[in-house]
Amino acid sequence: MELEKFINKIINGDCLEVLKAIPDCSIDAVITSPPYNMGRDYDVYNDNRDFDEYFNWLFQVLDELVRVLNQNRRLIINIQPVISKKIPTHHIISNYLLKKGLQFYTEIIWYKNNYKCVPFLGSQKHKSPYIKSNIEYILVFTKGDDKYIKDIDILEMSEFEYAKITTTFWNINPDTEMKKLKHPAKFPLEIPERLIKLFTYPDDIILDPFIGTGTTALACLKLKRRFIGIELSRNYCETANKLIENFIKQKSLF
Ligand SMILES: C[S@@+](CC[C@H](N)C(=O)[O-])C[C@H]1O[C@@H](n2cnc3c(N)ncnc32)[C@H](O)[C@@H]1O
């Protein structure tokens, strides 16, 4: 199996199939946001499946991600808490990764600051209000027991930024380009940027098996990491490739 042919590419295909061609222990970080099974209107993927079927599929993807991840590296999943059989989905994912022998590292709350709540006073008397979720989780797990340390002298953040992002509460507005890019669930560039700075080194290989519009790839290019992106929709792949081309063109102007 040859890794080189996947590097810095967005591969159009089903990640479960594509991942099988990636060698064991070859990836330095997985940074991804899978579909949440909450009925989002994706181009070709059905985001409204029976929950057993959804998890059966997602667990197979997670098995592959754990296999391809190198020792002492991070598996990072961004997920919105949707309730499946009265259990929040991020708990189900965390439990699965623990069962697979990964170590829990941290759980970051991404506060999206995007609900302009108009209270409906009438619901108060029932004592069973609908609580709107204005957060998502970023689950960080490690494969192996040791720290991932490379002897490289780099400073990629100011002290102020380091202090801000080494907390479990990230206040980041949702992405504003979703309508324009015709994708219903893009995360803002700042999410993969922060994760890359915190958990990887320059030239590392970062895998996003659900890369959508290519946000993780752009963060990698910006921070001089290599990426492997996989995406089921041909249209989203085209969008990702255009954004990458634009980024490279702009960079070459400076
Ligand atoms: C939550 S979105 C990720 C968005 C991405 N983080 C971004 O910023 O654009 C999940 C993506 O997974 C893709 N997807 C669904 N099933 C897939 C599969 N089997 N293989 C690869 N991609 C898949 C969907 O088309 C969708 O773009």
Q: Can you walk through the features of this model?
A:
- The protein is α/β, with parallel strands linked by helices and 254 residues long.
- It has a single domain, classed as Rossmann fold (3-Layer(aba) Sandwich), CATH 3.40.50.150.
- Helices cover 33% and strands 22% of the residues.
- It is built from 8 helices and 10 strands.
- The protein has an 8-stranded mixed sheet with strand order 1-10-9-2-3-7-6-8, with helices on both faces. A two-stranded antiparallel ribbon has the order 4-5.
- Helix 7 (215-222) runs parallel beside helix 8 (234-253).
- The longest helix is centred in the C-terminal third of the chain and has 20 residues, at 234-253.
- It binds S-adenosylmethionine (SAM).
- S-adenosylmethionine binds next to helix 1 and strand 10.
Please indicate the count of domains: 1
Percent helix, as a range, is 25-40%
Oligomer: single chain
Strand order, biggest sheet? 1-10-9-2-3-7-6-8
- Going by CATH, the architecture would be 3-Layer(aba) Sandwich
Assign the CATH topology. Rossmann fold
Average pLDDT, all residues: 94
The number of distinct β-strands equals 10
Q: CATH superfamily membership, which one?
A: Vaccinia Virus protein VP39
Q: Order of SSEs, N→C?
A: EHEHEEEHEEHEHHEHEH
As a percent range, the share of strand residues is 15-25%
- SS-based class: alpha/beta
Radius of gyration: 18 Å
Envelope shape = globular
Distance between the termini: 37 Å
The stretches of 5 or more residues where confidence is low (pLDDT under 50) are: none
Could you name the CATH class?
Answer: Alpha Beta
Largest sheet: 8 strands, mixed
Helix run count: 8
Ligand inventory? S-adenosylmethionine
